[in-house]
Design goal:
Layout: H1 3-13, E1 31-38, H2 44-57, E2 61-68, H3 73-82, E3 91-95, H4 99-103, H5 112-117, H6 126-129, E4 133-134, E5 137-138, E6 141-147, E7 149-153, H7 154-159, H8 169-179, H9 194-203, E8 209-211, E9 218-220, H10 225-238, H11 254-260, E10 265-268, H12 272-279, E11 287-290, E12 303-311, H13 319-330, H14 332-342, H15 359-368, E13 371-372, H16 380-386, H17 388-397, H18 402-417
Parallel strand pairs: 1-2, 1-3, 12-13
Antiparallel strand pairs: 3-12, 4-5, 6-12, 7-10, 7-11, 8-9
């Protein structure tokens, strides 16, 4: 049996720690490229199509695709990057904001040359491309994106006399105020949804944290004038519903709140609409999507871009094969296939039409053009674990003055980003 078929058995069974494959090539001279992909990122059918197509185009290569769990993946990848020998992965899918923590210490291949010369770096979505950089070099190659949109009840909009989705923040507030009447919630927005707040801050020209030059220290920036304006807009919008001020969007899951109550809007990835319909099938045909509105009608608001990049470990012994896999997965043919299959946003702005015709994906692609990511430092994970942003948001929504609370949160972010200040 060819090793490719064995690898597909791993994919089909979703073997999370990988199958212990034994090569049965019989000395055929074919090289095997080991690829770690995350559970749920691609369907079994897509992986089968890709494997067969890739091996047909590269007769000297076999693919060994191993599916991994997100839980605990950070430690597993770090161990693989540090390991001696040739048993580790040759290509790894990582969260777009995780690239710096793996690039630090020189354990990833620098892909800047290939990205600029062959892979269309200038057309990549900024929310995937920018966090894939470390020290001005490109280590992560964008694979796919997913970002928040506004999921709304078409019937409640109609009943409130809102005839079309808003395109500006001002229109959004006006429409939401009309919707927030007669026992309905204009929007369900939890008080600690800091990813949504980040988009409002970026729209104002602010940042979560700033860096003092290339390689300089990072400093929390929630107390800048721009960041405070973003928080002020969040406060206005959040007040037009009954979202808890001391919890995030998962406590309780906002899709469940949307499904069970008369809630006009939530801010979420389009896929959450499927969860809503599973809980309340009566909403079929009543759910719509639009991009998070911006400050002006000519472009949507900024949003946090989630998704994945592809990296190559420095210790690979199959560098050419690994580059061939990335070129294929990130190239137009297979990237658009993945986007259509999984309702993702393709990795390039020019490929947005690949998801045309699907309302949620179209809204997501429009927003992705304004996508951003969290600060590109390996220490950002410590900020998310401690998360002084959530505490700051709750205090402001409970009536505290924003500027001094923002200063406290910014100081804590600085401490977490620069251990020398602790």
């Amino acid at each position: 049996m060819r090793r490719r078929l064995l690898a597909l058995v791993c994919v089909s069974a979703s073997v999370l720690s990988g199958c212990d494959l034994i090569s049965q090539d019989g000395g055929s001279g074919r090289n095997t490229v080991s690829v770690w992909l995350m559970k749920g990122s691609a369907s079994e059918d897509f992986l089968k199509r890709f494997t067969e197509g890739f091996e047909a185009d590269h007769p000297d290569l076999d693919l060994d695709i191993r599916i991994q769990e997100w839980t605990g993946i950070g430690d597993k990848v770090q161990a693989a990057l540090k390991a001696d020998g040739t048993d580790g992965p040759d290509v790894v899918e990582v969260g777009n904001t995780q690239v710096p923590q793996y690039a630090e210490g020189g354990r990833l291949q620098d892909l800047t040359l290939e990205s600029m010369r062959d892979w269309g770096i200038r057309d990549w979505l900024p929310g995937l491309a920018e966090p894939g950089q470390w020290m001005s070099q490109q280590f992560g190659v964008p694979w796919y994106a997913a970002n928040r949109v506004v999921i709304y009840r078409k019937d409640l909009f109609e009943q409130a006399g809102v005839n079309e989705p808003p395109r500006t923040r001002e229109e959004w507030l006006d429409a939401t105020e009309k919707l927030d009447k007669n026992g309905d919630q204009g929007i369900y927005l939890a008080g600690q949804d800091w990813y949504t707040l980040a988009g409002f801050i970026w729209d104002e020209g602010g940042e979560l944290a700033t860096q003092a030059g290339e390689g300089g220290a990072w400093t929390g920036a929630l107390d800048s004038g721009a960041a405070l304006r973003g928080m002020d807009f969040y406060r206005e919008l959040q007040a037009l519903g009954d979202g808890p001020v001391d919890a995030d969007e998962e406590h309780p899951p906002q899709s469940g709140v949307f499904a069970k109550g008369r809630v006009a809007q939530i801010i979420a990835v389009p896929g959450q609409a499927q969860s809503v319909l599973r809980e309340n099938p009566d909403l079929k045909g009543k759910i719509g999507f639009f991009p998070v509105p911006g400050k002006s009608a000519d472009k949507p608001g900024a949003v946090f871009t989630g998704g994945s990049d592809l990296v190559v470990p420095k210790n690979t012994d199959q560098e050419e094969g690994a580059l061939a896999v990335i070129e294929a997965l990130a190239g137009e043919k297979w990237n658009t296939d993945l986007a259509r299959t999984m309702n993702y946003v393709p990795n390039k702005k020019s490929l947005a039409e690949a998801v045309s015709g699907e309302e949620g994906a179209e809204a997501m692609a429009a927003g992705a053009a304004q996508g951003r990511a969290t600060p590109g430092t390996p220490q950002w994970g410590a900020v998310e674990a401690d998360n002084p942003i959530k505490e700051y948001m709750t205090k402001v929504l409970k009536g505290a003055e924003a500027k001094p609370e923002a200063r406290k949160a910014s100081d804590r972010i600085t401490e977490l980003l620069d251990p020398n200040t602790r």
